[in-house]
Amino acid sequence: MAESRNPLAHHFDSLEQQYAAAKLGMWSFLITEVMMFGGLFLGYILYRCRFPEVFAQGSHHLDIKLGAFNTAVLIVSSLTMALAVHAAQEGRKQATLTYLFFTLMLGLTFLGVKVIEYSDKYQHHLIPGARFLWSEGDAGPPQLFYSYYFCMTGLHAIHMVVGAGLLLWLMALTARNRFSPAYYTPIEMVGLYWHFVDIVWIFLFPLLYLIGRH
Amino acid sequence: MSSPFALFPERASTMAWSVDALFLFILWISIFFTVGISAAVVYFAIKYRRKHDDEVPVQIEGHLGLEILWSVIPLILMMVMFFWGTKVFLQLVVSPADATPIYVVGKQWMWKIQHPDGRREINELHVPVGEKFRLIMTSEDVLHSFFVPAFRTKMDVVPGRYSSLWFEATREGVYHLFCAEYCGTSHSGMTGRVVVMSPADYAKWLSGQAPAGPAGGAMADVGAQLFTAKACNTCHDGRPGALGPPLAGTFGHSVTLADGSEVVVDEGYIRESILNPQAKLVRGFQPVMPTYKGQLSEEEILQLITHIKSLKSVEASGEKP
Amino acid sequence: MKEESAATVNYLNCDYSIRSWLLTVDHKRIGIMYLLAVTVFFLIGGIMATLFRFELSTAAGDLVTAETYNKLFTLHGVVMVFFFLIPSVPAVLGNFVLPLAIGAKDVAFPKLNLLSWYVFMIGGGITLFVALTGGLDTGWTFYTPYSSTYATTDVLSAAIGVFITGFSSILTGLNFLVTIHKMRAPGMTWMRMPLFVWALYATSLIMVLATPVLAITVALLAVERATGIGIFDPALGGDPVLFQHMFWFYSHPAVYIMILPSMGVISELVATFCRRRIFGYSFVAASSIAIAVIGFFVWGHHLFLSTQSVYAGMVFSFLSFLVAVPSAVKTFNWTATMYKSSVSWQSPMLYVMGFMGLFLVGGLTGVVLATLGLDVHMHDTYFVVAHFHYIMVGGVLMGYLGGLHYWWPKITGRMYSEAWAKVSALLVFVGFNLTFMPQFILGYLGMPRRYYAYPPEWQTLNVLSSAGASVLGVGYLIPVIYLLWSLRHGKPAPANPWGGKGLEWTIASPPTPHNFEKPVIVTEGAYAYGEGGHGHG
After folding, report:
1. Contact indicator for A97, A174 with CB cutoff of 8 Å
2. Which residues of C fall within a CB distance of 8 Å from A143?
3. Among candidates C143, C449, C139, C385, which has minimal Cα distance to B147?
4. Residue B286: which pLDDT band, with cuts at 50, 70 and 90?
5. How far apart are the first and last CA of chain B?
């Protein structure tokens, strides 16, 4: 769709048809993502029901301040993303670029904080595997908590990295004037993706950080 | 064991005929529909075969009545199968209360069997005719599945938990025992025999068998020695003020947990409490018990369980069960 | 193909370069690339089956070692399921036919379609690489904790291969879903769509909803295998049965990914070769959707004996019976379509009749296995093996071969030898029954599956089965020969050799690169055979 100057691909009859196809495709893709994260949530729920105390203990070792900060960062990034889509819709190139840039910066901030958290877990021997150390009894179930913590936040972080790449791509295309109020489908689609990744975090944060805190 | 032309395995348990009868019922319905529809297809294909190239047959769009008919009739038949099948299933999986326990540990690639009186067998199980047995099974490593075709019963053997299976043999003979869940290289070698004997022969066989095992004696006695050797008795001594909850007489009854919920003390709960003591803490007790994970083999855990089961509440300390 | 007259440009002769194939975004060429790939995978899987069937003709283990035997049946399962059965009808026939059938120039996302093929080939390459570096011995089901902890073979690479291949399936399903929603020609309303398109729609729903769960499942398995983090490890409090639930949440619907498109093909074939609109069109269409939806809630019937709760078992059993009803509805409607029709005995119709017989047996034995009280005895025995081969080989493969013979003239522009095609259809039917009917008996007698050696009293039936497999193998090899032969020597195919009513038969064989030269406007429903003379039965 991107490399030809005419945004209409050969097999579509109209831009409207192409836009509708892209939108349905993106939503379908997000549903596949929901199912994929769903597999992780299923295992998490099962083990949390099985080891409620251990999961609460594990949760207390996570840094709630950093988690809350990251939640705020992502919510703001969703706002800037929405503003970028809006700007593209109105054909304001400079504003689009600016908002995309802010979104990217916020995404990178999130990832930076995640790196701090992960390295903290590493220093405290909370990475599942041979080096895992747990002073409060059987190390098995706590390790399960951290396995899910890392799988869930890790998969989420991978999505953030992909999202950051997509934002760079969009910025390059915007700079080259590929978009117009008549055609800004990629920005809108990446926007959907970005919001989805944010929403996943909105679920992850309470499930992982807030267990047993009232 | 059976002839090369047999279509059914021997029927050697009380459940065998129930299963076969259900199977025959569904089999005949299946044959009826398979033959009927196939015959219709072949008949139509011959009767209405194309006579010339530009033939256009009369067009029939469909028929609502027929659609309903051939949805509802299969549905009714299948509901019959469902209820009948579920009834047989419940009979197969719910052990009668008076069944004698036998403990089975599966490992790559053998079956280790312990009778409550301490006798051990490997890949063989001797039982008398006319008595109910309940196998309590677990695995040391991967998934296995205990399968005796002549008894028409089978159950997966899963590491980390107990599963059970029961039977009452009705015919003397030697029957196949298979592992039915793929478990690695020698999966097909993880087989054995179930020897069903008359009560007299069984008694003779019993007397010829010295109680095996390094410690000797009944499982509960071996378990009692372990109970002391692992110092379980220092806390679970049943006296008021003891660090651990009393165990005597609790088996089969429910206890109240720290969070107020109730749990029935069964093999699975005792096993979990030995390996992961904090998982379901009895109300009024501190989480002070260390885990015994890695210090006890599956068989030793089973011996401890038999010991705890054998503790009658004669010296019960007045705690509610 | 070089004899093609230069006058007509079609999708095959428009460009002969290798590059034009490897970078094509034409759904027809991508279909052919899938055809080549799945044929190779089928032959590999078939050779493995031949080897272990040969091994099983004696009761003792003598031809190969137990380890080799386990690797053979594992790779047979992995290759056949993930690299043949799942892509066969949707990715080969679906890719080629779907846009033609709805009057579109291509699928909605042609580049994504090409990407699917590459993803498929990369996943397949990694999996075959495992075969070269020592094999895999977990069974295609990868059950934990054997696969995660105890197996000594290359589970990690195999899991990665399957993970990657899953995305090919997801992308194909997503592409088809959007194509069917957004790319239909004007006038092609939902209730005018050919039933094959309905079936592909139902299939795509499953691909999109279920495959991501397989992806995360094998990803967790791979992570656990690589790092020992304990998700399925009972030693750490993990639950090996969780893996089974997650695995079958995908893998049972996956059975419908395989069989639904085949059912769709059968509907097309019955209509064309009986010259009759499918009896109860809307019921057949709706039954595909019903199968796809209910099919999501029956996975637990693979776990009746896994220590799953008795009540869960009852629910899953009930739903499994329920999902059999729409399949029965389809079968009755196909049969009714033949009544007072004009039945042609051309080879694709022979495959249809073969399908009907084998699918009936497969479906009804499925009902036997859904019965809780019977599954206790038959679970993990050869009865299960025979049952799912009747569905997946008897059903899926007969539909696939029937469809391949039906659309071959459209795909290649050539006619094949009708006589040989009939011989092959007959051989496959006879060989198949000879191979798998004895396995039902073996299963009821109690022979567990995945056994390398077995008690000697079962040898007769095993020999019969192995003999049938040889017939079956010949039945499958013959089409490879005469279909290849037809490429050079076959008569040029007319646009509509069978008198089909689908849009694909209104254009040249083979089609031009962009399918339809003139804008398509659909004015009537699928299978409009009667000229105004619509009777009502």
Report:
1. yes
2. 229-230, 236
3. C449
4. confident
5. 49
Nearest to C455 among B1, B49, B145 (CB): B1
Please state the domain count of chain B: 2
Which two three-digit tokens encode residue B119? 């006798």
Distance CA C141, CA B60 (A): 45
Asked whether the beta carbons of C75 and C159 are under 8 A apart, the reply is no
Alpha carbons A91 and B319: distance in angstroms, whole number? 78
Q: Which of B182, B212, B242 is the last residue of a domain?
A: B212
Do B146 and B88 sit in the same domain of this protein?
yes
Domain that includes residue B287, residue range:
219-315
Predicted ipTM of the assembly: 0.92
* Stretch (H or E) spanning C121: helix C110-132
Q: Per CATH, is C25-506 categorized as 3.40.50.720?
A: no
CB B207 within 8 A of CB B199: no
pLDDT in tens, B236-257: 887 888 888 888 888 888 888 8
Mean pLDDT of C238-243: 92
CATH code of the domain containing B275: 1.10.760.10
Asked whether residue B247 is assigned to any structural domain, the reply reads yes
CA pair distance C536, C283, nearest whole angstrom: 16
B321 lies in some domain:
no
Instruction: Note whether B246 and B292 are same-domain residues.
Output: yes
DSSP C378-428: HTTBHHHHHHHHIIIIIIIIHHHHHHHHHHHHHHHSB---HHHHHHHHHHH
| pLDDT one-digit tens code per residue, C89-98 | 999 999 999 9
- Name C94's Cβ contacts closer than 8 Å, sequence gap at least 6: C31, C172, C176, C200, C203, C261
Out of B279, B287, B291, name the one closest to residue A51 (CB). Answer: B279
Whether residue C103 contacts residue C60, with contact meaning beta carbons closer than 8 Å, is answered with no
Same domain, B144 and B235: no
- Give φ, ψ of C266 to 5 degrees: -60, -40
Do residues B123 and B167 share a domain? Answer: yes
DSSP string, C246-312: HHHHHHHHHHHHHHHHHHHHHHHHHHHHHTSPPTTHHHHHHHHHHHHHHGGG-GGGG-TTTT--HHH
Q: Tokens at residue B61, please?
A: 């769009």
Segment 239-278 of chain B within 8 Å of chain C by CB: 276
Mean pLDDT over all residues of chain B?
88
Q: Is B39 on the interface with C (CB under 8 A)?
A: no
Spell out the domain ranges in chain C.
25-506
- Fold of the domain built from segment(s) A16-209: Four Helix Bundle (Hemerythrin (Met), subunit A) (1.20.120)
For chain A, the structural domain boundaries read 16-209
With b for 16 or more beta-carbon neighbours within 10 A and e for fewer, the A71-94 pattern comes to bebbeebbebbebbbebbeeeeee
Q: Which residues contact C60 (CB under 8 A, 6 or more apart)?
A: C453
Q: Given C105, C106, C229, which is nearest A129 (Cβ)?
A: C229
H, E, C per residue of A119-154: HHHHHCCCCCCCCCCCCCCCCHHHHHHHHHHHHHHH
CB contact under 8 A, B41 and C458: no
Q: Which residue of B has its CA nearest to C527?
A: B59
B142 in a structural domain:
yes
Long-range contacts of B252-260 (CB under 8 A, 24+ apart): B253/B321, B255/B282, B255/B283, B255/B321, B256/B282, B256/B283, B257/B281, B257/B282, B257/B283, B258/B282, B258/B283, B258/B285
